[in-house]
Amino acid sequence: ENIFDRSRMAPKTPIKNEPVDLSKQRGCTPETNPITPVKIIDRPQPDPWTPTANLKILISAASPDMRDREKKKELFRPIENSEQSDIPDSLQYDIVDDSTVDEFEKQRPSRKQKSLGLLCQKFLARYPNYPLSTEKTTISLDEVASILGVERRRIYDIVNVLESLHLVSRVAKNQYCWHGRHNLSQTLKMLQEAGELQYGELMTFQHKEQDLEYKFGEQKKETIPDSQDRSLLGFSEPDCISASANSRKDKSLRIMSQKFVMLFLVSKTKIVTLDIAAKILIEETQDTVDHSKFKTKVRRLYDIANVLTSLGLIKKVHVTEERGRKPAFKWIGPVEFSEKTDELRGHSPTSDPLPETQKGACAQYQTSTTGKQRFTRHASFNSAQPCEATRRKASSEPNSPRQERQDENCSKMINLAAVCRQKIEEDSGSAKNSNKTLPLSLLPVPGDSDFCVKPLPQAVFPVVQADVPSFSLPLGISSQASHPSTPAAFKTENGKPTLVPNQPFLCFPSSSLFMLCGGLQENNLGEPLPTAGDLGKRSAEAQAAVPLAVCQKRSSHKCSLPSAPVDDEEPAAKKQTLEHSDLPLSLVVPKKPSESPKAEPSQGSGCSAAVHLETNRLDLASPAAPEVANKESTKTLDFQEQEKQSQNKDPDEPPPGNEPISKENSNQPFQPQYLYVQPTAGLSSFNLLFSANQAPGAISLAANQLPSLSVPCVMVPSAALASFPLVCSPPFTSPLSPVPDGSFSAAASTNFNVPSLASTTPVFVSTTAVVTPKVSPVPSVDPQQPAHPALHLSPVLTRSCSAVKLDSPVCMGHPVTLLKLQQPSSAPLTPKSIRPAHHEAFFKTPGSLGDPVAWKKNEGNQIRNASSVQRRLEISSTSPD
DNA sequence: CACTCCCGCCAATTA
DNA sequence: TAATTGGCGGGAGTG
Description:
Radius of gyration: 26 Å
CATH class of the domain at 116-208 and 248-331: Mainly Alpha
Largest sheet: 3 strands, antiparallel
Strand order of the largest sheet: 1-3-2
Distance between the termini: 32 Å
CATH architecture of the domain at 116-208 and 248-331: Orthogonal Bundle
Structural class: mainly alpha
């Protein structure tokens, strides 16, 4: 109700702590009194308990289909809260009002109004997605229950699911601590890892659900038993240890929720049918598949799904199989996690970035509660999960003596190992990834094809913002927001493919910058990358797939690009979604230029966007850069770092491509990709182009390679470059790729003016931008001087590059941004200068980059610092916006 | 009829 | 022992 009123009044602000008693309303609710039509007549206002009510009305008015959509949207919107939500909300509400309909529905409160999903929305509306670290929000179950007018039991359902994702943690009896989505990405990451361990193999086969089912069932039995639940929990959180305990509750909603999420994360298609999930989740019963049990499980899954839907992490879909249509859910949340989220957070309006703080807070809180060492451990461990620890630990501990502990320990160990690994990766990656990836991440974030596309396109600053939010929020909303902005650029929708399907990179107008990447599929260096990769893949797939869509459906993975070692992404998702909505999109693009200052004419779009980004990036970059530089004078750029890190940590990891090696590998002619680097201080007049190319199939590398000089590069006088607006690389050409150059060109042309450049030559360039050469890794041309702007910049570039790599075919505008930052090629910026004032403030934190010295120091702790830095940066970036 | 999933009984846990 | 949590499944609303 509140919401509703407010919406009118001040639609924008999310409902936070409204004292209003829904319960009252409830009493009044239609149920008791079907309400008089009169009210209805007047307006829906009076009645609408929730925003939903309005929606319903609208929906009712609209066609059935519309209804569903509307509903969904609504759900999402509230979630978003912060920034964007405003507009949308208002809009919706307005709409609702207009419709005024309602009568129909109002009459009965209908179950829907009482649905868990709605309830969850209301619940979520009360708390910020990204609460400031400083403020700890405690949730009183009783209070909330009364406010929302529901029985406490229902609140438990919600809280348990939220708890499984670490959005909240139990502090004490009736008390929960609200953490928001700050740690969501990490949690998801962990879950993904865990999921891969447990279900990964299976997922590989995913195409066929049925098969999967069987497989799952079997494996589950096998695999799971051990770590199983524990692992999940535990792994997911350190705290779990204590918490998880074994108690009966293990099968609880919490665990089920985690497992359920894991299935999505592991699934290539990102779609999980209800029955499969139920089967998988029925641990023991596998064989017997008790019908009743199955039913029960399904009921629970619906409960969980409702909450996850409200969170914007999944959406309901239907999968048509041989037998028929089955209910399923599709993951629409972030696909990659890692730091992105963090970054996102930073950007996000509300966010407060600092995990650290949170930790601190959590720690305190935890300690108070529990006062155990574990806690400490945890804290150290994961920045991410702070508070959770507490949960029931205290209680559980006493209860659970050794057994639990042992189990816990085991699971912990495992988990920890995983966690550590992740962390390391993340951290390492974060430095590069975060910065670099950010942009990329944006792309991926969206997850769905729909989303993916959008982000990129956005115009300037929008990009940043949009991106951030998008990341952070899986919600469609963000994407939506972006849309508007994007239109000019390539559009995604159908267009995805259009854009740059195969091409390895994108080019931008000179003014800004460009980047590019080749198709690379896979490598995900870091996590973030994956997203990009995914996108790229998708895009590629899309291209190919589009026509092939059908094929994919059936043979999901096969269809995927042959060349690259694609990972996960698959068409599968697509296949299901044949609908298109999901289409894989791809690309990226420059954004619209609303104003590109310097940029050129049409491109402006790209440029402008770039600019904004730049700023953000700068922030990020600059800090990071310094670190890097310091660390390795030689290496200089992020690349190196990345490489190193990747090597160190990743070696294990799969991404063959990513690795360092490549420098030379990159050489491959196939589709050469280049990175353009403008000369900075060190290199004055030359612009460098590095090839990032990779073999179409293989790929890997990009950024890393670049650093190494060995890679083939081209140096071009800046002047020369100036004339070129951009470049496109030829598509990989997936065999299938239907996309004709023409399409691409067309798209390109629109944005860039470069009509047909063709695909064949991958190149690009820019005049203005000056990039530092990260290039010279070894030489560390510029690197040495930390202060140098170049350094700062370089990191950015690198990152961008790396990101690019990941993304394979797609290119991002992001990188561009970076360049812009540098634009000022003219004068070397000092780090400080680069940073915006705001940023500085943020940076001030001790750990922060603030001074060069600090940076240097950081070397030792690179990882940490980087992460922290990034975070900070993120934050800072946000602030600017 | 199949889906969804609300509702609330009642047992396990806690305090 | 009382209160809190939360598993569970009947059965109602929806399509």
